[in-house]
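Summary for the lay section of the report: proteins are chains of building blocks that fold into shapes. Here we show the chain for GNAT family N-acetyltransferase and then a coded description of the shape we predicted for it.
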Amino acid sequence: MTKQKEEIVHRLKLRNLHLSDYKNIHEIMVNIYKNQAMAYTRQEFKNQINAFPEGQICIEDNGRIVAVALSLIVDYSKFGDNHTHDQITGYGKFDTHDPEGDTLYGTDVFVDREYRGLRLGRRLYDARKELCENLNLRSIIAGGRIPGYSKYADQMTPRKYIDLVKNKEIYDPVLSFQLANEFHVRKVITKYLPEDKDSRAYATLLEWNNIYYEKDEKLIGNQKSIVRLGLVQWKMRRFKDIDDLMQQVEFFVDTVSGYKSDFCLLPEFFNAPLLADFNDMDASEAIRNLADYTEEILIRMKDLAISYNVNIIAGSMPEYDGKKLRNVSYLCRRDGTTDKQYKLHITPDEQAYWGLQGGNGIKVFDTDAGRIGILICYDVEFPELGRILAEQEMDILFIPFWTDTKNAYLRVSTCAKARAVENECFVAITGSVGNLPRVENMDIQHSQAAIYSPCDFSFPHDAVVAEASLNTETTIVADVDLDLLTKLHKVGSVRNLQQRRLDLYSIQWKKNK
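The coded shape description reads as follows.
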């Protein structure tokens, strides 16, 4: 009498994972990967569930977990195609999860060896696709292992191997399955999982597109990625009155607006020619009288920003409240709103001649063309300020300056370029040219306006986007791409912001007393 094979009764259930499942999952991973280092720790698993519980899926059979799929949501533009598993998962912590992202990223799918052949992996993939559609995400992307490649590594390149798998000339236990589930290979990634010896650290970048994806964007008024900057290299000349001065200002605003610029930057103390009206006074009294024009100029600047549809950084002007004389730069947005930034560091000359005092605050300003910071001249020579602004996700730093000699100009321009590199942002600087023979302490000018960028493959090799002719009244109009900054932050050759040793040092802004 033949003994009958005992019937196996399955009770399969698809559900989300819980922290109490960790022991079961760890055993499966160690068994599958045969490498303790490739299995998640309990803390990593806890972080994954806390970050995105809906994305951590399993199949259990009679209460025992037998198949698992892990995933997170990312803003894929922040990572690009040349990423590693550690980078996109935050080294397994899933602190890269972004609920506002556009892509479901599959980090792992694994099935208990005893349950292979039941197509449980397909069920998990289908569950992921359902999740992607329900969350209205653009696609599913994953880095796929190619464990079968180790048998052919001495014979062919990974690309050739992948082509043969696509053509079903070779069977790969992972890639063949993924291709059968409607994923396509975008490219080969190197050093994706360095510890994956079977794949020789190579991986396929796979994508499944959600055909039901509906991009949720406004038809008008979206945040710009390509931003056009207009810089005015201003000539100091005699103006008979404020109307004469503002006529020249309007000419330049009109000029850069005609090229559809998003910003117009004027120099520090562009209104200094009006000091000629106070030649009979000493320098400190004259600058305080010049401050009387500031309110009227601001009103006119606000009107110009609206009528010419351009955000104006109105250089800088003196402000005097009867007690303190300060140097202030106004941001006049094209929607009619304004903000201001005081100069914080006062040069010895400004203190001696005018009695200027520094402001006490700094911040990043939101605009319809990016987040911007403003540092007035000497302030750019203090690297802490640029870093504080960078920590507030500044995209563009504007530097209105006034320098009288070449060495003074080079201090400003050299430091401005350094701020662009170290803070991974764009920096725009402009000053004045020409002479004011009868204006004490503002008699000569030296300037070469410029736009600087970080220094990496996506940017100019010398970090100079554009540069004006030296000591000539002119304008610069040039585009900067804010999306390149996002890419640089994540995958740049060097990453100054990301790789700071915050365990060793930090910059702290002290509260005002």
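Put simply, here is one thing we learned. The two ends are 95 Å apart (CA to CA).
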